Amino acid sequence: MGHDTAHHESNTKRIWYVFVLLSVVTIVEVILGIIKPAFLMETTVISMKLLNWIFIILTIYKAYYITWAFMHMEGETKGLRRAVVWTAVFLISYLIFILLTEGDYIYEVFKAGHKSWDF
Amino acid sequence: METTVANTGTEGKTWGGGNKPLKVSYGKMMMWFFILSDALTFSGFLAAYGFSRFKFIDSWPIADEVFNHFPFLHGVDAPMYYVALMTFILIFSSVTMVLAVDAGHQMKQKKVILYMFLTIIGGAIFVGSQAWEWKNFIKGEYGAVETKGGQILQFVDQEGHRVALHDIAIVNTHKDRAQHQSKNGVWYESEKALPTYTIEEIREGFAKKGNLLIRTQILTEKGEKTILSREESLKRLNTDAIGIVEGANLIHNEYGTPLFANFFFFITGFHGFHVLSGVVINIIIFFNVILGTYERRKNYEMVEKVGLYWHFVDLVWVFVFTFFYLV
Lengths: 119, 327
What we know:
- The structure holds two protein chains of two kinds.
- Chain A is mainly α.
- Chain A is built from five helices and two strands.
- Chain A has helices at 2-6, 12-35, 38-42, 50-70, 78-112, and strands at 44-45, 48-49.
- In chain A, helix 2 (12-35) packs antiparallel against helix 4 (50-70).
- Chain A is flat.
- The longest helix of chain B has 34 residues, at 258-291.
- Chain B is α+β, with helices and mostly antiparallel strands.
């Protein structure tokens, strides 16, 4: 913190820039979610609709800006940044991979099994 | 004191002690690590949601049809507009928070007060909006019928528009039965609140109104719910249906699989609780700013620390918004 107090020019310009950026991305998401373009719904990439991939990528893009600009992660040391960001990224990726794979497996079991669930 | 400390010859070196390799204060670093652990908790929730969603990939409720209310617009189909508005409110309160932090760096007390105030207002509006969402979700709109296997059957007309239970049921007033209360029984047992309509009343009404059809949970290839033919609808209603469902709780909901409501309550509830605690913490810091605590301390780092928490709440909402409402 000591290095912070000495010199501090205002960052307001960047803050408003990031706000506009986040708003535009959110509007794009909502518009896509409402009109649901047919070709994005029909194209499947790695067993998920292209539209869903776009949503997820835009979300991570927003998350990046919130963390880097608003939470000022860009100004922290490499050590702190990696301790927080890498830990989250690797653990969450692993968790999601395992759970989604298992969920899909159970879906197949439900579908292919001899037991009826819809009665 | 200095004379009592042994000289190790490592002063000023990396591992010599006394320096801060991460160049942050203890409080700020611990706030980051708290946020990291909280982020993992939320990921656990969202990944579990993804698990259940993949498990029921061809029968999950469609969010656009569930969250389509907007204040003062009754009966208007407004998918996601309100959630999008809530997202804006939260992002904007994040902006005012970061402006407060920025003003704090320049030691401008008045500006910090103004921006913190706006942040608190934004947070309060968000929590209120979430409460309103919950109210709509719990109350439900059309109602549905549940089958023996726990599947939800909804009613539609020929055009595929939803039809509410109260437009279907033919109420037989002669068969009105009273709720059994504990004061009436020998064993002091009571029963749960009676449903508005009995399944017989729905069956009777459905048989009379020839234009009604049943919609199942199963999604078609186009991602819409399957609509049964008239004959199939009558068959399902007469052989499988056992009761009616209105609105949502943790056991039944009229939208589809019970897990959908469970995850809705747990994820948005956990997030809403974070927003609420964030507002409370912001209020405490707000009063500290007004009292001039940080002026005397010559340092507004406390505002920065609650700011980190507040941005985190916003960050989580960005993900909840995507995975609950968009995907």
